[in-house]
Amino acid sequence: MAKIFIYPTNSLILSDLVERFGHKPLAMMEKIREKITTVGVDSPPLNITPEDPKLGLKYASVEVPAGVRGRMSIVGPLVDEADAAIIVLDSASAFGCMGCARTNELTKFLARQRDIPRLEVKYPRTDEEGKDFVYQIAEFLKSLPKEEDGE
């Protein structure tokens, strides 16, 4: 099972497709769930630990807005962990808007810098494009090795 970084990182559609083909989606939703359910995090609504801002500095300098560093403290490790990536370009906001243009650009840049298999597809606008979109993703996912994850 390959770990697939998905962009937009909160796309339920991509997450579901990746799971259906036997791989693990690396999505922001799972990391957020971990943050808000972890016993050690006791400062809602912030839900951060003292280490989170430091981790964000690995991906974005101190000069960028704090929100970018905060998002990158979650997204950056997902990119680092990935065995492959799917990037959807020009997606509609309901498909998985992440809300911060600078974070989005930095996220795509980091994913493109990794030496991993990567599929970049345009968000479909018609039924025919939608079919081709799913087909391209399916073929990409089928091409990835399905290693045993030991579970």
UniProtKB/TrEMBL annotation:
<dbReference type="InterPro" id="IPR012356">
    <property type="entry name" value="Methan_mark_5"/>
</dbReference>
<dbReference type="Pfam" id="PF09885">
    <property type="entry name" value="DUF2112"/>
</dbReference>
<protein>
    <submittedName>
        <fullName>Methanogenesis marker protein 5</fullName>
    </submittedName>
</protein>
